[in-house]
Amino acid sequence: MDCLNNVSTLRENIMNAAQLPVAEHKVRCIAITGGKGGVGKTNISINLATSLSKLNKRVMLLDADFGLANVDVVLGLNPEKNLLHVLENQCSLKDILVDGPDNIKIVPASSGVKRMANLNSLEQSGLISAFSELGDDLDIMLIDTAAGISDSVVHFARAAGEVIVVVCDEPASIADAYALIKVLSKDYSVHKVNIISNQVESKAHGEMLFNQILKVINKYLDVSVNYLGSIPEDSYLKKAVKRQLAVTTAYPRSRSAQAFKDIAKKINSKKSEENSSGNLEFFAEQLVQLN
Ligand SMILES: Nc1ncnc2c1ncn2[C@@H]1O[C@H](COP(=O)(O)OP(=O)(O)OP(=O)(O)O)[C@@H](O)[C@H]1O
Ligand SMILES: [Mg+2]
């Protein structure tokens, strides 16, 4: 009898699970940003995406960088359509997804990003449901943001729920990263950021950069800061860029590819309850509050 009860409870559980709305599936949304241009945001986004995918995560990379060397240029992709076409109701979000290396999916968004600041309410709800439809097929969405601290950059970072700030060893990089974190904390209630040091000579060099920014943040801001690690300056990464490939694909044994692997493991090991982000629908809802 007990056995029969167990079977029916199991069946009920399965039925309930099947009825869960799409939005119940948690998708971590992580924005890669940095304030200063050229610090390595796009390359870090691509290579963390491939490294997380190698850890069996289903990863999507949203290209929110409307600069010159955005994700599709760096990877030599030629997307026919982008987020602008979705916003203009010409196709669905699934139609514009491009296959990237290591099974990652890429949303070419660049030319839709500026348009996002001027959506009417119908377009806003269209974008929200477009994103929430993808939720079941994904575990992590990374967002490559543009340089600077324009409204769109800050809104993407705020909407993501998790933020990675990239710094390198230049006074302007530390100053711009601090300015970005200040705006995020004071105007957008973001009180937790992660840091990656890029183009470093050694692990100690990366930690030194982290400590520099930590010192000013602790002095002036109410933000908790988590260090994810560093990526070395690596000629193999530059070679991979020239070949329009991810370094993790082209040179998986290079020092930078190993560092991406270590940081991806760290990101992956974070317990789900620590994740502040909810789901893709939440992300899109936050995003369209640009207006
Ligand atoms: N770890 C590294 N080792 C060697 N070169 C690097 C490294 N990281 C970045 N670079 C170099 O810096 C260039 C700029 O990197 P990337 O395009 O990723 O920066 P970005 O922050 O996205 O720039 P933008 O602000 O223009 O979007 C790369 O093309 C590469 O040549
Ligand atoms: Mg970039």
Question: Could you explain the architecture of this structure?
Answer:
With 291 residues, the protein is an alpha/beta fold. It has one domain: 3-Layer(aba) Sandwich (Rossmann fold). Helices cover 49% and strands 17% of the residues. It is built from 14 helices and 8 strands. The protein has helices at residues 2-18, 41-54, 71-74, 83-87, 93-96, 110-113, 121-134, 151-160, 171-188, 203-220, 235-242, 247-250, 255-269, 280-287, and strands at residues 28-33, 59-64, 98-99, 105-108, 140-145, 161-167, 192-200, 224-232. An 8-stranded mixed beta sheet has the order 3-4-2-5-1-6-7-8, with helices on both faces. A hairpin with a 5-residue loop joins strand 3 (98-99) and strand 4 (105-108). Helix 2 packs across helix 13 (255-269). The longest helix has 18 residues, at 171-188. The radius of gyration is 20 Å and the shape is globular. The termini are far apart. The site of adenosine-5'-triphosphate (ATP) has 21 residues, from helix 2, strand 7 and helix 11.
